[in-house]
Design a protein that fits this description.
Blueprint (H helix, E strand, L loop, with lengths): L9 H17 L6 H18 L4 E7 L19 E4 L2 E7 L13 H9 L9 E10 L2 H8 L7 E8 L16 E11 L7 H17 L12 E4 L3 E4 L2 E14 L2 E11 L9 H8 L6 H21 L3 H10 L6 E4 L16 E8 L5 E4 L5 E4 L4 E4 L4 E4 L5
Helix pairs in contact: 1-2, 3-7, 5-7, 5-8
Length: 392
């Protein structure tokens, strides 16, 4: 079932509020600081709407509400504008947005791809907000999560302040799939590091699925996973994920999963479609990739919440680049149980993942080392694990 929200015409509402504020000024009734702030926000939102800098709203239902918290009557309606940094983004319904306000991300094509899937009918529905230019999709959800329905995804054609792990900047040109997904998960806190692994698995599985079942037999993986959260295609990074959680009480966590994949942008490095063209295969679209990813995300999150990561491990190991890999662990790396650190490098061999998401490795004496997924970086070329440098 499909339902498109009939939202207030933000442009008209802004004009009415602006006119009302100007009237209060003329009457000498412009004394409250809150009214001054309201006028400033209104002017800024009107300017952004006229420039096409808005979020366009569409809601898609696939079936019954899912166990992680899909669309239901208890969820809030999407506000007519959302905070993002120092500004506010107007929210327009897809049916009322003008041509120059519509993103190049095709919401109706995405809807068709999502509804055409034959599996995951119990995955609930999605609230989709798409914009031509957004400071950061992650930031939109971080600042507005309490005002949005669960299972909301924000998509941007371009970002001006995209971010990765440890505050690193994420270059965000047009053609890249840039999105952030908001949902609730009820699980033990120790399982939270596993969510980034589930997210990377959803991305690589979706990339593989888009190549078609006829190509699946007897070929090497097209996509792969570099620990802890990078997406590779044919040996080169094309994407990554960033998962952030906040405890909301009663055993539930707010999860915002940021995902960036270079789908059709040759710069700044290379992209998925560049490889597909070289292979003589069909190119893919951002809309169909996202449509395949979302049901997988909820399904994988549910498996971790109700069981563990164990049912997903075989598929995960089938895509990751590290089974049996020899690494050199630098002395400053974050290691469980090692509070003093060391100046020495240690040679180890990767053996897998622990139940709570640590990278497991053994040294020459078969002593097990557990490396934190957050706080460490792994240089694939040199095989060096070292402390992640934070950038603010």
């Amino acid at each position: 079932m499909l339902k498109t929200i009939v939202a207030k015409n933000t442009g008209g509402g802004l004009k009415r509020l602006y006119a009302c504020t100007r009237l209060r000024q003329a009457r000498g009734d412009f004394r409250e600081p809150s009214l001054a702030r309201s006028l400033a926000r209104t002017r800024a939102a009107t300017t952004m709407a006229e420039a096409g800098n808005v979020l366009v709203l569409k809601r898609v239902r696939r079936g019954a509400q899912d166990a992680l918290g899909g669309l239901d009557s208890a969820d809030p309606a999407v506000p007519s504008e959302l905070a993002c940094g120092d500004g506010r983004l107007p929210v327009l319904d897809v049916e009322t947005a003008r041509g120059e306000q519509l993103p190049s991300f095709d919401l109706k094509a995405f809807e068709g791809h999502l509804l055409s899937q034959g599996s995951g009918e119990a995955e609930g529905g999605w609230t989709v907000l798409a914009g031509r230019q957004v400071a950061s999709t992650q930031r939109v959800l971080e600042e507005n999560a309490k005002a949005l329905p669960r299972n909301t995804v924000v998509v941007a054609d371009t970002q001006t302040q995209g971010k990765g792990r440890a505050g690193n900047a994420w270059v965000s040109p047009e053609g890249c799939l840039m999105c952030s997904v908001y949902c609730h998960v009820a699980m033990e806190g120790r399982k939270l590091p596993l969510l980034q692994y589930a997210t990377t698995l959803a991305v690589v599985e979706s990339l593989e699925a888009l190549r078609g079942p006829a190509l699946a037999e007897g070929r090497a993986n097209f996509a792969s996973i570099k620990w802890p959260n990078d997406i590779y295609v044919r040996g080169t990074k094309v994407g990554g994920v960033l998962c952030q959680t906040v405890y909301r009480g009663s055993g539930a966590f707010q999860l915002i999963a940021g995902i960036g994949v270079n789908v059709d942008n040759d710069e700044p490095t290379f992209c998925v479609n560049q490889v597909l063209r070289e292979l003589g295969e069909r190119e893919i679209a951002r809309e169909e990739l996202l449509a395949l990813m979302l049901p997988r995300l909820l399904r994988f999150y549910r498996i971790i919440a109700e069981e563990s990561f164990a049912p997903l491990l075989r598929d995960y190991y089938g895509f990751w680049l590290h089974s049996g890999q020899k690494l050199k662990v630098k002395g400053d790396a974050s290691v469980r149980g090692d509070t003093a650190g060391s100046e020495e490098h240690k040679d180890v061999v990767v053996t897998g993942l622990s139940d709570d998401g640590f990278l497991l490795a053994e040294d020459e004496n078969r002593a097990v080392m557990e490396l934190y997924p957050d706080g460490n970086s792994l240089d694939l070329m040199s095989g060096l694990v070292f402390k992640k440098k934070s950038r603010s």
